[in-house]
Each structure stands twice: as structure tokens, then as C-alpha cells.
Specification:
Elements (H helix, E strand, L loop, with lengths): L2 E3 L1 E2 L10 E9 L3 E9 L14 E2 L8 E8 L5 E6 L4 E7 L7 E2 L7 E7 L2 E9 L9 E10 L5 E5 L17 E3 L6
Parallel strand pairs: 5-8
Antiparallel strand pairs: 1-3, 2-13, 3-4, 4-11, 6-7, 6-12, 7-8, 8-9, 10-11, 12-13, 12-14
Amino acid sequence: MAKHSMKCHPDTPTKLVDDFTVESERQGPGHIWIRYHVEAPVDDLELGLPGEPDRQDELWRTTCFEAFVREAGCDSYLEFNFAPSSAWAAYSFAGYREGMNLLPMASVPELGNDASDNHFALEAIFELPSHLRDSALEVAITAVIEELDGSKSYWSLAHPSGAPDFHHPDCFTLHLPARAEP
């Protein structure tokens, strides 16, 4: 398991985030685990109120941690959104920003977080559809961080040129090899 540094989009500078890292790995058959870790004064971030896991749309409008997953070499992909409140969303896309549908989930993503005065971390474990469980994967790990003053910064392992666009193929830079037989 490797730790990766998230990059803030140059058009959306942050005033508060000192460091942002992620770790990820496959867990068991068909699951991905991701830990997002933000070093920032937590009281100045918009994190919402904790609640029960609940599927909701438009989580990206405020602080939201995301993962885009596709089979290596394919145009179709999945989008998973995780909020600090435990709200979540999952969608499938036929191609770049086209053919969006709700992704049926066999199980609700497991979300947990921890925080101190100067850090916030969210862990997510989510299940992949059966056709991706053993495939080599390309993943885009992204996030929107909203500060209490309403300013937002957009984070990714890599950004394409132009405005922030987490769906862009250039964001899919994390490679998870095909799962080996047990």
C-alpha cells in the first residue's frame, strides 16, 4: 500500500489545507479501501453533521471525497462519492460524462472518519460490481474541500489542463493490478 499526495487545482488555491494524502488498496474479493487524510484546521472546514449512511445526489457541492474507477483501457467508468456526514453516492457512466445512471450497490459503502484540531480523515470501503472484481483497474482519486467562508478547492492525484474536471481521462492515474487468484 502506497501513500499518494493529492494536488490542489491551480485555479482553486486553498487557504487552509497544509497537506492532503491518500492510501488505497484492494481488500478481499471485489472491494476497494481508500483513506483520505487532510491536514487543516478542522473547525474552519465545512464537514457537515454526522449521520447515518444515506444515498444522496450532488454531494460534490460541498466537502466530498471521490473515487472514479474503470477497467484498464475502457471508456466506461464508475463514480463513488463519500461525504463526512456518511452520505454517499454511486453512478455509472458509459463514457466521458455520458450515459450517467445510478449504480446499483449490493452493499452500502462502509464509511468512517476521525479528526483532531488539525486533521480530518475519511476511510471508505466500497464494493465493485462483479464484472470489475478481478480486473486491472485505473482509478482517479479526487476531492472537493469547502472552507467555512464558502471557498472550495479541488484535489486530485493529477489534473488535466483547464478547469477542474475529475471525470477527465487524465485523472485516472492510480493503477490497481488484476486481482490474483486466492
